[in-house]
From TrEMBL:
Keyword Cell membrane: no
Family, as annotated: Belongs to the peptidase C15 family.
Annotated InterPro entries: Peptidase_C15, Peptidase_C15-like, Peptidase_C15-like_sf, PGP-I_bact-type, PGPEP1_Cys_AS, PGPEP1_Glu_AS
Gene that this polypeptide is encoded by: pcp
GO terms for biological process, alphabetical: proteolysis
Enzymatic reactions: Release of an N-terminal pyroglutamyl group from a polypeptide, the second amino acid generally not being Pro
Enzyme class, first EC level, given as a word: hydrolase
Pfam family name, one: Peptidase_C15
Protein name: Pyrrolidone-carboxylate peptidase
Summary of the function given for this chain in its UniProt record: Removes 5-oxoproline from various penultimate amino acid residues except L-proline.
E.C. number(s) listed in UniProt: 3.4.19.3
Lineage: Archaea, Methanobacteriati, Methanobacteriota, Thermococci, Thermococcales
Subunit record text: Homotetramer.
Length: 201
């Protein structure tokens, strides 16, 4: 068994991204599965190029993508990714697409194949604030989730995949008040999500 877990590089003027800070602290093995940890660029073109290659090369059984959702007070497990890239805010390459598809000719949307409700329950049982989100937005996080699910579908793989958004870490909330969570709690949340996903197979 193998699980691919990803986090993102910093963006939006932040010096860290709690998603990657959590992912890189994960153990190298969980419940007998090897854990492959990778940092993704906050670029539309980057995730569409890197993720398919990673998934095809690694052949993971489970793919857990994570990203920062500044302003959200809890960990949110995404239910759906849509085939749209639309942002007035440029990515880290300076690219700001408007109403463009993630992939031409691909389906309008994909539902997460991770056990969304089971993950939320496990997080709450672990005393971590969590909920289901029905929109991953139209920025790079959504593009990454759509790319992973589309890659798996096209390749005919049986891997389960989905996306988890995490709040700002406390370190990012020092200068101005905004919802945040301890980095250790974020790391624990990602670990709970991974273990729950592995056990659901």
């Amino acid at each position: 068994m193998k699980v691919l877990v990803t986090g993102f590089e910093p963006f939006g003027g932040e010096s860290i991204n709690p998603s990657w800070e959590a992912v890189r602290r994960l153990p190298d093995e969980m419940d007998g599965a090897a854990v492959v940890k990778r940092r993704l660029p906050v670029t539309f073109n980057g995730v569409r190029e890197i993720l398919p290659r990673l998934i095809v090369e690694e052949r993971p059984d489970v793919v857990v993508l994570t990203g920062q959702a500044g302003g959200r007070p809890n960990v949110t497990v995404e239910r759906v990714a849509i085939n749209v890239m639309d942002s007035e805010k440029p990515d880290n390459d300076g690219f700001a697409p408007g109403d463009e598809p993630v992939f031409e000719g691909a389906p309008a949307a994909y539902f997460a194949t991770l056990p969304v409700k089971a993950i939320v329950k496990a997080l709450r049982d672990a005393k971590i604030p969590a909920g289901i989100s029905n929109t991953a937005g139209t920025y790079v996080c959504n593009a990454a989730m759509f790319t992973a699910l589309h890659t798996i579908a096209v390749a005919g793989m049986e891997a389960r995949a989905g996306f988890i958004h995490v709040p700002f870490s406390h370190e990012q909330a020092l200068d101005k008040p905004r919802p945040s969570m301890a980095l250790e709690t974020i790391k624990k949340a990602v670990e709970v999500a991974v273990r729950t996903s592995l056990r659901a197979r």
